[in-house]
Amino acid sequence: MRIAAALAALAAVAIACAPPGAEHAPTGSGLRTFESGVGSLPVVLLHGYGASPRDWLPFTHTIVLPPGRRFVFPEGPETTAPPDGPQGGRAWWRIGLDRYRRPADAVPDLSAQNPPGLAASTRRIRQLLHELAPDGYARQVQILGGFSQGAMIAADVAFTTDEPLASLVLFSPSFVNEAGWRAGMPARKGLRVFVSHGRRDDILPFDGSERLAQAMREAGLRVTWVPFDGGHEIPIEVVTALNRFLAEE
Fold first, then answer.
1. Residue 167's domain is classified under what CATH number?
2. At what angle do helices 116-131 and 149-160 cross, to 10 degrees?
């Protein structure tokens, strides 16, 4: 799932003044990362399909982290190529959305899918989280999130593993492996979750995020739901709402 044109335009303008993310070579997880900030506690954000971890750099100016935290932006392990994404983009697993489009609106529905690449990237992110805690900070203070396909990986970590998490941040997600996620949600009762989605999204279904947010509420998670009038993107109103959410940590 690509970053929307509006987000790409924002990145093009802001990237010049964004702080240069410190690049870290892959270790046991096999994932290269870019980091910004000096806090000891990571906020790990996963990019979308066909995108890059550098796409997050403009947001280091606008997302206000709680004291003691820093940004960590991993790079997906797969490389995209036309027609399945842009040349040289990164992904968490390769996907052909045309196979899953709903007849009614041509928007993909991945809720019944459980692709092998989903679990593989979930394992990589868990290994990365382990590597980010060499000094033994309490893993339960971790914040994990993502945009689009990255949000699906973050949700999969939350609902198919026992990885300790303080908060989950999902920008424009979609249900994948819905049965498995629903089965794992009760174990996350009380977890704080931020979810946003554009009502005019033509990449991933808005109603899928509505259903995901409702399922989490019913399982006892503390959900902040932020719908907005836009597409597949992270507009300033979502960032403002996220900052309020993070300030309440």
1. 3.40.50.1820
2. 80
